[in-house]
Amino acid sequence: MRLINAQTLQFDEFFEPSIPGYVILSHTWDDGEVTFQDMATTTRPIPKKGYRKVIETCFLARQMGIGYVWVDTCCIDKTSSAELTESINSMFRWYKNALVCVAHLADLEASVELKDGIAKCRWSTRGWTLQELIAPQIIIFYDKNWCERGSKDDFCEELSAATQVPESVLLDPDLISKYSIAQRMSWASERATTRTEDMAYCLFGIFEVNMPLIYGEGGTRAFQRLQKEIIKYSNDTTIFAWNPTAAELSHEHCLIFASCPKAFTGSHSIIPRSMQDYNPEFSITNKGLRIQDRLRVSQMNSLNDSLSEYSWTVGINLFGGSLAVVHLRKLGPDLFIRQTRLLSSVGHMTDSHLGLSRDNTFWRHDDPGQQKSIYIMDSSIPPSSVFAGFREFGIRCADFSRVWGTNPTYFTRAIPHDLWDHSDFIFLPNKDWLVRGIRFNQNIGEHMYRLAIVLRPSSLPGLDQQQQQQRYSLSIWDTENHPAETARIFPPNLSKTTPNEDLTVSDLVEDCPVVWKLGNVLEIQVDGGETYRVTVSCEPEEVTMFSQIITMFSLRIVISKMPSDNNSESLAI
């Protein structure tokens, strides 16, 4: 460590554990700062504005009876990339180990009280001064004229209000690890640095990580590299508890990691889920972020609407206890992408699987009985193979969430489970030879009926449009009339791997010959003698997916009331 001798103003170098006590300067940089090369010359005084900071800090050190001083502008040879990297990775420790930190507030006027002016000082808005505020045990503040104005202990409450850093951390920097990653990120969210990369580099000590410096990589890349380094040592999922910036909100999807600390502006009260019953595993792979966890599916059911989507719980709001969730969209089996949407707050889980949000949204786990590996793409652009696959194999349940009259259609189950997308009501492309199936509840007349549909391949790819329309054959039935076949195709236990996930036409013919023979029309007679006809069909349709027009097969469900005079009323579901 290179220190300035407070008496001679010459450099002396020391190595741990033989570093003597020293005073360290915290300040904001301006024009005319003194460099290592300036201090290494024999010319005194140095004709630069910043030289006064060195002189004043050395004077204060001598008054305190301390022999050495460290000033970041000149004690680092910034022409050496190796020395610069070592210094920035060591800086939090250097500020923490200082006997006294002298904080010079260059824009604090003599007529302004520290408690009133600290929030408006530039020192409170810079990235590097965050660690300089937290790390030292003793900080003494000086105004623009180098008059002493008070200590960190004297104004701890005002400093906390101005910087959002809790008083407990200001008084004891060792408590910093007690706060979540989202909370620590939020402390830096309103700060700035001259070089964009420094907004990541100035946080090394806050998160106890070491990284090489790559000036020129850009602020976003540097900050995301920091986050990937953090998750090597921490499984705190609040690192994902951020809101997209205004620029990102113009896109459908975003990266899984935040682009800058500003994204954590509203995350100061988000803490991890209890580690007693929740200890997630996640890591970065070449497929994206791999997590070992449960996803959740929300279903908001109201008189005129129904909505389903995937979400991942990443933390708990300290004030109110609601869950903080990020929104995902499914791309393929166990593959998702993050939607560019704000964090949502959902009410506490009422048991291990169910919960109720403040807007009366019903939540349930996608797979309540099992944690499994899923991947979230570290990209904002879905792969082109997704679109190609949809054109060939996608099957869409058209308007499946719409209501019929005042009675909504409720989806309850689909197979293959991994290929079903709750968000867009589609079967994703993969394993075209497998049978697809859905179960749903539908109110008809005064009763709710539990119905099921299977789509089975009936022809091969590569046919013309007319032939393609016959590509899938359909069967529909009332599950109460065929309980054994329903249980075979839709086993009740979702948490176990079951044969239905690989159900082929041959399996259907052998195990469920009754279903195989059923057609695409089901007639239901309700109390009072009225008859309803439920007809399903599968037709090619162009739909918009990921801002692109994709051709896929659309499942159409029509419920018709059959009056005695044969004048039917019908509505497509």
Keywords:
573 residues; 16 helices; 31 strands; elongated
Number of strands: 31
Q: Write down the overall mean pLDDT.
A: 84
Helix percent band: 10-25%
N- to C-terminal distance:
73 Å
The SS-based structural class is: alpha+beta
User: Number of DSSP helices?
Assistant: 16
Spans of at least 5 consecutive residues whose pLDDT stays below 50 are 300-307, 349-369, 399-406, 495-499
Assign an overall shape.
elongated
Tell me what you see in this structure.
- It contains 16 helices and 31 strands.
- The strands form four sheets. Strands 8, 9, 10, 11, 12, 13, 14, 15, 16, 17, 18 and 19 form a twelve-stranded mixed beta sheet that branches. A seven-stranded mixed beta sheet has the order 2-1-4-3-5-6-7, sandwiched between helices.
- With 573 residues, it is an alpha+beta fold.
- The longest helix is centred in the first third of the chain and has 17 residues, at 81-97.
- It has three domains: 1-177, no CATH class; 265-376, no CATH class; 384-572.
- Helices cover 21% and strands 31% of the residues.
Topology of this protein?
Blueprint: E1 2-5, E2 11-13, E3 22-26, H1 36-40, H2 51-64, E4 68-70, H3 81-97, E5 100-104, H4 114-117, H5 128-134, E6 139-142, E7 148-151, H6 156-163, H7 167-171, H8 181-187, H9 198-201, H10 204-207, H11 219-230, E8 253-254, E9 270-271, E10 281-285, E11 288-293, E12 296-301, E13 306-317, E14 323-332, E15 335-339, E16 344-346, E17 354-356, E18 362-365, E19 372-376, H12 384-393, E20 395-397, E21 403-404, E22 407-415, E23 420-421, E24 426-427, E25 436-444, E26 447-457, H13 465-468, E27 472-478, H14 483-489, H15 505-511, H16 513-517, E28 521-525, E29 531-545, E30 548-562, E31 569-572
Parallel strand pairs: 3-4, 3-5, 5-6, 15-19, 20-30
Antiparallel strand pairs: 1-2, 1-4, 6-7, 8-15, 9-13, 10-11, 11-19, 12-13, 12-18, 13-14, 14-15, 14-16, 17-18, 20-24, 21-22, 22-25, 23-24, 25-26, 26-27, 28-29, 29-30, 30-31
Domain Heterokaryon incompatibility: 22-110
Protein name: Heterokaryon incompatibility protein-domain-containing protein
Organism: Bombardia bombarda
